[in-house]
Design goal:
Protein name: Glutathione gamma-glutamylcysteinyltransferase
Largest sheet: 7 strands, antiparallel
Structural class: alpha+beta
Helix content: 25-40%
Organism: Pocillopora meandrina
Number of helices: 14
Number of strands: 11
Distance between the termini: 76 Å
């Protein structure tokens, strides 16, 4: 008899296989659908979910169903940042999109993982994979810099097609992500880091920030002090232009600003309607919040470097 998901989270002695894979390494390389377009990781994840559940759709159908939003690269700075904050898709778009593509045959349920949750991610994923669910992770990839120190420039949706002691087996791109890394990406505030270059090249003296008010998103942008972050970065750039050769510790210049993001970090579990998996999902509850977790200040997490300019003039 299956362990009820509402009690599973607290159990440590549930007997589960050491390795659960829907597609093994060879199958992933052959069967997975890779990125189908700009900001289209959500549509790509939807296509992989369909494939794993024995269904299909065209790329255009998937993009239209999830309403993929693009970055407005030619827009003035405020509008550009607004487009960055919503580019791509959210987990809600994926759930609604798969419902539309299959006339309600595929259903999904999202599990928040921020603030930090008190559960065993490896066993939780194994449990649901064994019981027929298809997990799609919504990850803030900026939480884990690349090996060369570069901070990725976006969030990402990826299907988890397996679990082993090495980590979570992901599609698009094919990878095995250690649990200590994917756990960080799954537990994030809804924020996005924007690189210095993207700000400076679009800044001008006559910027109009009123679009943030008209979009109904002003409060969050005020809380994060986005305009103040921009002004600080521009001030640094001005000092560089005036006294560049005399500025010490350039590595301490602000590298990014932090803006609101539409995405929520966590995992969406998909299943066929009226299946045993669907019934388990209907009876499941949100993952318990870790009691010792304390909400960290966003600016502390995403400071991106402090201003510390030393100028000899």
């Amino acid at each position: 008899m299956a362990t009820h998901p509402s009690t599973f989270y607290a159990l440590s002695d549930v007997m589960l296989p050491e390795r659960v894979v829907l597609w093994d390494e060879t199958e992933v390389a052959k069967k997975q659908i890779e990125q189908v377009g700009a900001s289209a990781c959500g549509a790509t994840a939807v296509l992989n979910v369909l494939k794993l559940l024995g269904r299909s759709a065209s790329v255009d159908e998937a993009n239209n169903a999830v309403k993929t939003k693009l970055r407005d690269l030619e827009a003035p700075l405020p509008q550009y940042l607004s487009s960055r904050s919503v580019a791509g898709t959210t987990h809600i778009d994926l759930i609604e999109g798969l419902g539309k593509l299959t006339c309600g045959e595929i259903v999904g349920q999202f599990f928040h993982m921020y603030p930090e949750r008190d559960f065993d991610l490896e066993n939780w994923l194994k449990y649901w994979l064994v019981h027929g669910a298809i997990p799609v992770a919504t990850l803030n990839r900026q939480k884990v810099p690349l090996t060369d120190g570069t901070i990725p420039d976006a969030w990402h949706h990826q299907v988890i097609c397996g679990v082993s002691s090495n980590g979570a087996h992901l599609t698009n791109p094919e990878a095995v992500c250690p649990f200590n890394e994917i756990s960080k990406q799954l537990c994030s505030e809804s924020v996005l880091l924007i690189h210095r270059h993207d700000i400076i090249q679009r800044w001008s003296n006559n910027i109009d920030y009123s679009s943030w008010n008209s979009d109904g998103i002003n409060q969050r942008w005020i809380e994060l002090k986005v305009q103040e972050q921009i002004n600080r970065m521009v001030k640094e750039e001005t000092l560089l232009l005036l006294h560049g050769s005399e500025i010490k510790h350039r590595e301490l210049l602000t590298t990014h600003i932090t803006i609101p993001a539409a995405y929520k970090s966590g995992i969406t579990l998909f299943a066929l309607r009226d299946s045993r998996t669907h019934r388990l999902l209907e009876n499941s509850t949100e993952l318990p919040i870790k009691l010792i977790n304390q909400r960290k200040d966003i600016e502390e997490q995403y400071s991106g470097g402090q201003i510390n300019l030393s100028i000899n003039v």
